[in-house]
Amino acid sequence: MPPSPYSALADLLIQQGAVISPAELHGLLLGRSVAGSGFAAEPWLADAAELIGSIADEALQKALIGLQILLKAELEGRDITLTLLLPPDSAPLAERASALGKWCQGFLSGFGLIAGSIALSADAQEVLQDLASISTVQDGLEASEDGEGDYMQVMEYLRVAPLLLYGECAQKAEGKTP
Questions:
Q1: Do residues 77 and 87 make contact, with C-beta atoms less than 8 angstroms apart?
Q2: Name one GO cellular component term (predicted).
Q3: Residue 178: is its pLDDT beyond 60?
Q4: What is the DSSP string of 27-51?
Q5: Do 32 and 112 form a contact (C-beta atoms < 8 A)?
Q6: Pairwise CA distance, residues 33 & 35, whole Å
Q7: How far is it, in rounded angstroms, from Cα 55 to Cα 178?
Q8: Number of H helices, E strands in the chain
Q9: pLDDT of 90-128, one tens digit each?
Q10: Among residues 158, 150, 143, 141, which one has the least CA distance to residue 98?
Q11: Which of 8, 9, 112, 164 is the most buried (most CB within 10 A)?
């Protein structure tokens, strides 16, 4: 069986000597894009290189461009969910929950770097507060049926929440109020 996208990117990051997890990298790059940094390939790779150190490996560059293309399609598409780059469901719950927390931390960092102090609606502020809360509870999920259910609920929320922020930031960029 081929490795999951998460594991494949983790391997590329390790080969590059990067200490960032695929989840945190994905969250950070998505947060920057949602806040308005755009999707052009060169700035995307520059943002990633800023996090990783450098991107000398061609396979890593291709993987990041593929990730950029996927995120752009999802954010600008008609679907109302995003694909999160997290460990597969077969990974232990503790590992998945930790990655989920890192994803939230990365998203908040990336979003904050670009959005700065723009005024956001109460709904958008609530989403950011939810992400901050989620980023700190990764150790609170127990390996049980309830823990799995809680994890799935949080993950489903995170597949939709960035779209609200993206829509609001896009409207602000166009000079409209949400």
A1: no
A2: cytosol
A3: no
A4: HHHHHHIIIII---HHHHHHHHHHH
A5: no
A6: 5
A7: 37
A8: 8, 0
A9: 888 888 889 999 999 999 999 998 887 788 899 999 999
A10: 141
A11: 9
